[in-house]
UniProtKB/TrEMBL annotation:
Residues 7-140 form the DUF4395 domain. The keyword RNA-binding does not apply. It comes from the Bacteria. This is DUF4395 domain-containing protein. Keywords: Membrane, Transmembrane, Transmembrane helix.
Amino acid sequence: MSQDIRIDPRGYRFGAAVTLAVALVALILGAGVAGTVVIGVLALMFLPGATVGPQATVQAWLFKRLLRPRIGPPTETESFRPPRFAQQMGLAMAAAAFVFGLLDIAAGFYLFTGLVTVASFLNAVFGFCLGCEIYLLLKRTTTRAA
């Protein structure tokens, strides 16, 4: 993918709020079957964002159809690449939590579900995308090394 797709940063912040809600439900339900199913659904929700970009998620679709018509177009856009990396990190953490839930290892379930919760909280509430910042740090590090 050579072109840099531009996205509305409010969209992936909304997506983080949806992620936060789902992750909190998983934490409340706990490491049993119900919590494991919910975190598995969250992992599936991350999949299109991790492979295509955040513009391909269910959350982005909801944002475009329900919120954006009411708040208008963005004043600025951002590259999809850092949020896609954040989605990849979210997918990895949610998948790890799901596997730990399946294996009935509560500590692993809570650790990885907690990481998803904290990261989505930071983005939804403060607009701080932890995965995006890690992407930019890695990009700067690899660019200097080249």
